[in-house]
Amino acid sequence: MKPQSDISDPRIIKALTHPLRIQILAALDERTASPSELADELGAPLGNVSYHVRQLAGLGLIKLVKRTPRRGAIEHHYKAVGRPQITDDAWAGTPATVKDAVVGAALGDLGSAVTSAAAAGGFSRPDAHLTRTQVAVDEKGWKDLDKELNATLARVQKISDDSAKRLAKASGDGEQAATVVMMLFGSGGGEAAEAPAPARNGSSKTKKTRAKARA
Length: 215
Known about the structure:
The chain is mainly α. The chain is built from 7 helices and 4 strands; from the N terminus they run ααααββαααββ.
């Protein structure tokens, strides 16, 4: 799925402050589902899920893809249409309380996803990657890191798109679910950087993402 760009609508930014909406977007980024299926999967009341699904659909973040007759009613199935990516200008103009809520919701969902994946053996592959690297940089160094991660994000999307084409030809045979997380954030008021943690794959690459929500 192509990532959305130039998200500057304050309604969308506000929508991302609710942790349940983040979870719904994450689920619908991977597959098509109805509010009932999402409620069962997320362990949330159906009424709450249905409300947030309607809000996300109204903002154009998800779309209705099919209607299924079931028990005398019509079940609506939705799919995410893009990954919300907040622009630098929009993030700079976002109130601090909203930023905190967006980041908190994203980190909460990320923490749950990582914990579940680890419990299911998601890091058991020899080429799984988990590193934490703290560095001391000046303003140019920070911007260079930001540029590098944006380039990596674009490359990750290209790899995903190429894989989707090959999987379509193979009828999905060999498909593997993978998650890539990147972060870049301030880690102290000018304190000296700590020694980097050992890398799982022998490198010292930084896995970081801007403290902006990229669902």
